[in-house]
Amino acid sequence: MEKKKTMVQDIDRTIYDIKDAVHPAYQVGQGLTPEIVNEISAAKNDPEWMRLFRLKSLRTYNRLPMPTWGPPLDGLNMDEIVTYIRPNTPMRGNWAQVPEDIKNTFVRLGIPEAERKSLAGVGAQYDSEVVYHNVREEVRRQGVIYTDMESALRDPVYGPMVKKHFMKLVPPEDHKFVALHGAVWSGGSFVYVPPHVHVKIPLQSYFRLNAPGAGQFEHTLIIVSEGSSVHFIEGCSAPKYNVANLHAGCVELYVGKNAHLRYSTIENWSKNMYNLNTKRALVEEGGTIEWVSGSFGSHVSYLYPMSILKGEHSRMEFTGITFAGKGQSLDTGAKVVHAAPHTYSSINTKSISKDGGNCVYRSSVEILPQAYGCKSAVNCESLMLDDRSRSDTIPVMDIRNDDVDVGHEAKIGRISDDAVFYLMSRGISEEDAKAMIVTGFAEPIAKELPVEYAVEMNNLIKLEMEGAIG
Amino acid sequence: MMLLEVKNLKVSVDGAEILKGVDLSVNEGEVHVLMGPNGAGKSTLVNTIMGHPQYKVEEGSILFGGKDITRLPTNERAKAGLFLSFQSPEEVPGITLENFLRTSRVALTGKPVRLFAYQRELRQKMAELGMDEEYASRYLNVGFSGGEKKKSEILQMLMLNPKLAILDETDSGLDVDAVKIVSRGVEKFRNRKNSLLIITHNTKILEYLPVDRVHVLMDGKIVRTGGSSLIDEINESGFQPLAESKAV
Amino acid sequence: MDLNFQHTNVLPARTWNRLGINDTALAEELPPAAPYTGPGPAGELPEGVAAFSGPLPAGEPETGMGHEEADFVAEHRNCGVSLKVAAGVHAKTPVFLTYRVDENSPFVVDENAVVAEEGSDVTVVVSYLGGARRGFHAGLTRLYAAKGASVRLIQVQLLGDGCLGMDNIGAAAGEGGTIHVIQAELGGRKALAGCKARLEGLRSRLSLDAIYFGDRSRSIDINYVAQHVGRKTRSDIRVSGALLDESEKTFRGTIDFVRGAKQAVGKESEFNLLFSPKVRNRTAPLILCAEEDVDGQHAASTGKIDENRLFYLMTRGLSELEAKKLIIKAQFRPVTDQIPDEKLRNAVAEYVEKRLNRL
After folding, report:
1. Counting one residue from A and one from B, how many pairs have CB atoms under 8 Å apart?
2. Which domain holds residue B190?
3. What ipTM describes this predicted complex?
4. Is the terminal CB of chain C with fewer CB neighbours within 10 Å at N or C?
């Protein structure tokens, strides 16, 4: 691979010291009005209940305050966002205006020409539509429904199922950006897997990138019935450029009895984005949710997939990597609630900070009084590549039963001199040795991803590392 | 032909002077042994020869193949033909032994490696060392027992074929059978007219090798140099007599 | 008098408010303030150790519990001792201080300081005893270890079930200075403890051992912060304890590597034994880092006594109760063994033994 410099142009924003106790209360303007919400609802042909739902969410949004912990959101101009939400505004920008570095990264990652415009939100769909269509056909034979949210909502058979589940797991009252989502959501996937079906090919949301409101406020709802299994992959490693810089998506996952769902995400939003995503899974008896998460992009990220282990013997496994470079404040982690006996959770994360980037690992493990016989293991490791960056680990455990086995380990440090020396003593250059060590550090996540994604993720890391060393 | 020449080497670590003027040379095709009590500076010497950043050369020089390598970065020294088998090899998660060795070989030779031939060679050499095939796809040294780590080092030596292999206490922590296997591996290497500098305490590894020269390092200096009989002398009377003679 | 703390034991980096761990609020009705009539320092001070007054060198260090407690103590204090150890003096015997919170004196607010000048070292053992039905104790101790000096503070809190107690420590160390703290929070209906050490000097160190014991409906709330400012600084925080009945414990432990603290090493470990399904154990072990060249580690383990270990002891003839008692006491031993007074050690052992009989 050619060794060119990666110079991602950042919007000039100061990163505040996130250790400051309380940020002053930040008021959001009243840019979003019921009229706009009604417009959106009408343009989408929403059923009436959805229109009313959106309006109620809007009221909740106006009422709730901005979060006071976590990276500052002062740079988010809500009024600007509002104009992009209006249905008649094209979400696509102009190819000429797409930043150079985005275009360069497409080249470096080997993204085909047609795809680039689609990823940059400026072109018509490339043949992803065709691929998507073919995948749908194949899984339909198994009885699996994989469609866009708007269609699902209107479907006579699945509409009621959607209505029953929509934003029940993540209610708009949860926090401000979920309420916003409830009011203006658009696009996303609906997946329904009937009982005792094992979906062999992974379903990828990548195909759905260019629906209007592209990827910004998409809602994903997945229902995996008893005894079934499926792997869903969200996002892609190529940087997704968006004119409007807020991503407030929502993912609701229902894992049925003895079912298995793997949800993988590689998030590489362009570095002007505010990524405030809410993901939640509800797991029934004997079910398993596996999260695999790679966070590379965005200017600011708040991302904590949460799992509620509702049924006995249910399980959650979370594997994640976060790489924060220049100008990035990535606040990520996981949450799990053990609400039933004999449940199991494991959280395994790695984070890398360089070039003034901030990584925060934030988690909570709660074991409720009724949850006996539970086990939880958390392991988080952070690598600092220079002394300009920050890496904070903020885990919390709240345990309300004695019949538990809870272990927690955290480590932070730099690339070991001894490890570099060892690799160099075998002829490998210092630069390559460091890249190998960082790639090796990310291995546990890479190996959970399908091969193409793993390769892309490693390429991404190499690119990021070149920027650091060059 | 002189392969390694260490001249009046003075080395400090963290401000403390460990080597106080060491002279040592190894010719092509020779087997040298370095002995000395704990804390004498043996590991310091070999790590310095390899260029470990923590060891500071205050005075003196190191020449390899006639070229001054005193300030050369570690990977350049490896390319020149130096190899160090570590006393406590690093665990590097995320990289398999197989991939690592392949990358290393490419780095050292500058030539691409043909996958099947490489894998065949790797499997063969692992078998010779009594290493289970599955270690090739395990992360480099991660969770390896002490013995397996040492074998992994010798495997690397056999795969990378250096001109001078420095073995830092390769036989310590190995059971009787493992020592035999490792010794045979080392001997095999040695037959190709390469050189060895071996640090050892228990000298069992030397039972299978013809030793050309023995150096005794005490308190940061070489106090005695001799033939292989010096090993028996030390095994019988310990290092004390040499210390006393030094004082005289 | 009413006590009203809004933000005490503040977590150095906020997290989700819902978890209720960002800080602790405390609203209590206190016994009326009165002069302290209980004992103070026992016996003569060792040679080289003398009382002093005046500000601490290098200013007032920040404390683990925070301003509210420190301000309260400054305003209401009715006892306390400030000691200075002269340069080069290795105090031959420890200094023993005992404060009693009993019916005669149910309101005890002590403000203390221990300053060890260059190259000196001293051990101060402070016990808080007494069983007033509505007792209150608020303590504040500031520690300073100058260049190459060492201060060892051992605090043993064995208050009765009717007492509310708080033990707050703020420490700072100069080059090569060592702060060594042991806190045993074993009594009281509600116990708060905090310790913050600012490791400013090159190679300065903090060693902080805490043991806690919760039974009935006792609550324990702890906040420790090891702040690494200087290079090659080192901190070791070890917390270990047991919770029975409906007791609860909240522990916040932060290793904070400030930019510039090159080659600093910070380690934190926590070991919690739980004995009843009604307990609540909350932990927030933080590592904050702005410096690359550091080594930070944290390990925590929470749960019941290991079954295999229990079984092993029982195969050697101990009943289940005896085995459990043995294990808890063994857990505390490494810490209590450091108390340089046999009587106090025994008092702790007896106290724990008595409370464990209810297991």
Report:
1. 79
2. 2-91+161-247
3. 0.93
4. N
